[in-house]
Hints:
Layout: E1 2-6, H1 10-22, E2 25-29, H2 38-44, E3 47-48, H3 51-54, E4 60-63, H4 74-77, E5 85-88, H5 94-97, H6 101-104, H7 109-117, E6 122-123, H8 130-135, E7 147-150, H9 155-167, E8 171-174, H10 197-206, H11 212-225, H12 232-243
Parallel strand pairs: 1-2, 1-4, 2-3, 4-5, 5-6, 7-8
The structure holds NADP nicotinamide-adenine-dinucleotide phosphate.
Amino acid sequence: xxxxxxxxxxxxxxxxxxxxxxxxxxxxxxxxxxxxxxxxxxxxxxxxxxxxxxxxxxxxxxxxxxxxxxxxxxxxxxxxxxxxxxxxxxxxxxxxxxxxxxxxxxxxxxxxxxxxxxxxxxxxxxxxxxxxxxxxxxxxxxxxxxxxxxxxxxxxxxxxxxxxxxxxxxxxxxxxxxxxxxxxxxxxxxxxxxxxxxxxxxxxxxxxxxxxxxxxxxxxxxxxxxxxxxxxxxxxxxxxxxxxxx
Length: 246
Ligand SMILES: NC(=O)c1ccc[n+]([C@@H]2O[C@H](COP(=O)([O-])OP(=O)(O)OC[C@H]3O[C@@H](n4cnc5c(N)ncnc54)[C@H](OP(=O)(O)O)[C@@H]3O)[C@@H](O)[C@H]2O)c1
């Protein structure tokens, strides 16, 4: 498929690498211009382009920029045909993104993104660490394959996103509509806990909307105050422990 990715960092570049390996045609953009990511794009097998070029003549656009930068993309996306699937990978962390009252009052993050960019989105790949994405993908049918949630309101667009998730090495779980996508946000039991499909389903059901932001902030505080950087496995274990059902 023809795919444009905006954001060439941990998530954007890793998705590009995997989709190129699958045979997809990938364009990739960042904030500073294509000349700043030519070498990276070449290494990924993608084409370095401007943001405007990234959304032109593609079937799918993946947005993988810092949460608070999403609104900057409204003008870039304004002329994109409505049948182009737009996927949002972002997560809100107030300590990093600045406090956003609407989200603090309960608006699901991807609904906020969708409103700011002026079109519907599908939420995918947000609920995994970048190291999980790059290192832990497995072929379909492998026992213990990690599952991730995919939420959105349009069934066709969500199916497309779920197919891409499978291509990148993970079971895709239909997590319902965007109104329910708070169940896969930071601080929930489904977020960055590396679960298989049935366990992920249980984790989404167990999510508690009032508790999640508190657990999110407690986890980040703990990671920042740790005497030494935590290993990947320690981070996953900590996420599971703090968000476990009480
Ligand atoms: N890292 C993780 O473990 C992880 C996991 C799941 C989801 N996420 C979410 O996925 C998103 C991307 O995370 P990341 O870790 O890949 O971030 P990152 O490594 O910091 O990369 C961010 C990318 O976004 C680009 N960018 C920033 N502002 C932009 C703008 N206005 N227009 C176009 N491009 C812009 C940056 O380009 P420049 O370098 O040119 O500024 C950079 O290529 C975030 O929302 C994050 O919360 C992250």
